[in-house]
Design brief:
The chain is mainly alpha-helical and 299 residues long. The chain has eleven helices and no strands. 49% of the residues are buried. The model has no long low-confidence stretch (mean pLDDT 89). InterPro entries: PAP2/HPO, PAP2/HPO_sf.
Length: 299
């Protein structure tokens, strides 16, 4: 059973339960963060309780949590539970969906801490703190519910031990607390939060030159440079500029991240992640200029 406490290894989990938690686990994955935070930053003030500065703070926390997880996995080098790389066979699943199922229900690499648990605690916690949507207690409760669900899902689908997710939740929450405090709390000093993410990424890359640590370094560096160059420069969004910014950021950033994962070369990951985060921060300004030019031509 390795280093941790496995709670489902000897149990026969019903197939529908495994499928349900495989879907839940997607809430703690990088693609979901990428889509959600990119949209939040692009739309900004168009969403009640959200500003681009607040969205950028959550992005900074996400980058730092990613770097922290990557570095600690390389430091601790704990193996995953047996069978973590093999998805249960679903006889009823269409062949075209098998690759998606295998991606959702399996995991490779080292196991401690759980990246999904760490990221969920940090990112959803940061969103609950930074975004002023609805009542504060409701935001906190919703964030806690998602974090618990994602952490539990990793154990149920058999890709983590219980210890992995408990450490991950504590680590993500602790990192968020440090960043929140050092970034001025409600004042949300985005540059400081991004600088902290970059510091963590540099330390991780200095310890281990791996695809994960170097990619995390590229993302953190891109965040720091992107916010310095483009943060606060775009005018307040309109529905048109917000939509254009969201499409630009998702297409460019998503494509670069997908390309880096497919290549699995540290240098490619570094460049792709860096440019992707810069693209997210640059998208609102680019969208404003594109829409402005289109209006001039149509006038």
């Amino acid at each position: 059973m390795g280093h941790g406490l496995g709670v489902v290894e000897s149990l026969s989990i019903p197939e529908p339960v495994v499928v349900f938690f495989a879907l839940v686990t997607l809430l703690g994955g990088l693609p979901f963060y990428l889509l959600g935070l990119t949209a939040a930053y692009a739309l900004g003030e168009l969403v009640d309780g959200v500003t681009r500065e607040r969205a950028a703070f959550v992005v900074a926390v996400a980058l730092g949590a990613l770097a922290l997880t990557a570095g600690l996995k390389e430091l601790l080098v704990h193996p995953r539970p047996p069978g973590a790389g093999v998805a249960p066979e679903l006889a009823w699943l269409p062949t075209a969906l098998v690759p998606l199922w295998e991606r959702a229900a399996t995991a490779d690499g080292f196991t401690l801490p759980s990246g999904h648990a760490t990221g969920s605690a940090a990112v959803y916690g940061a969103a609950a703190l930074a975004f002023e949507v609805g009542r504060r207690r409701v935001r906190y409760a919703a964030a806690a519910l998602v974090v618990v669900a994602v952490a539990l899902s990793r154990v149920v689908i058999g890709v983590h031990y219980l210890t992995d997710v408990l450490v991950g939740v504590a680590l993500g929450g602790g990192y968020l607390a440090v960043v929140w405090t050092l970034s001025g709390g409600e004042r949300l000093r985005v540059k400081r939060a991004l600088s902290l993410a970059l510091l963590v990424a540099v330390l991780g890359a200095a310890f281990s030159f791996s695809f994960e640590t170097i990619t995390a370094l590229g993302g953190a560096l891109g965040g720091r440079l992107g916010w310095t160059l483009f943060g606060g420069r775009a005018p307040d969004p309109t529905r048109r500029t917000g939509a254009v910014a969201a499409v630009l950021a998702v297409v460019v950033a998503g494509g670069l991240v997908a390309a880096s994962v497919a290549g699995e070369a540290p240098v490619v990951g570094f460049l792709a992640a860096g440019v992707a985060v810069v693209a997210v921060f640059a998208a609102p300004l680019a969208a404003a200029r594109l829409v402005g030019r289109a209006r001039k031509k149509g006038a």
